[in-house]
Amino acid sequence: MELSAPFDAPIAFALGPFPITWPVLHALLCSLLLTLVGIGLSARVATERAGRLGTAIEAIVDLLRAELDQVMQTDSRPFVPLLGGLFLFIATANLMGLVPGLGAPTAHLETAIALGLAVFGSVHVLGVYRRGWRAYLGSFAHPRWWMLPLNLLSELTRTLSLILRLFGNVMSGEFVIAIVLSLAGFLVPVPLMALEALLGLIQAYIFTILAAVFIGGAIGSIEKG
User: Domain coordinates of the chain in residue numbers?
Assistant: First the structure.
């Protein structure tokens, strides 16, 4: 693991005038890995419907749905692909920072911004789709019309908070481990790396649950957070 500045995004190569940074390559690698694992698991589940693997995957999906049902206070099945994909991507991306030679793409601001904007866009598209544009836009003037500017500002600040929370926690953890590795070698920080792996999973869970809360507020199943 290399020690680099928190906001440094080294360029791997360029496609014409467009530079491709290492965080972008790591994010693409994370997406490719999850796609291949998903295709492999789907093929196995399709041929082993009564097998242990199929039962385990079904149990995990049911657990995720139960958690999202409780948070969103509605049937979460239409949102499981989006929210489950967010959790898997962020969790895998966070754990990539512990692999020698790789780095966590979520420790770089551009990846956190992309994830935050994906949630921001999904919230409003789903809100308009479920409630209609007139009722959804009108919800920003509740409970009083003069609160419209505050409600609009709240939409922006909570997305900014989502981005900075993920970026700050993952970046600081990766930076601390890099410092310890540079000073103590590869054996001493093993407990610290195990703790960082746990925190990476927790950060993925928090991001996913907050996205579920925002979507629940947009579709009207829960009060806006």
Answer: 21-101+108-220
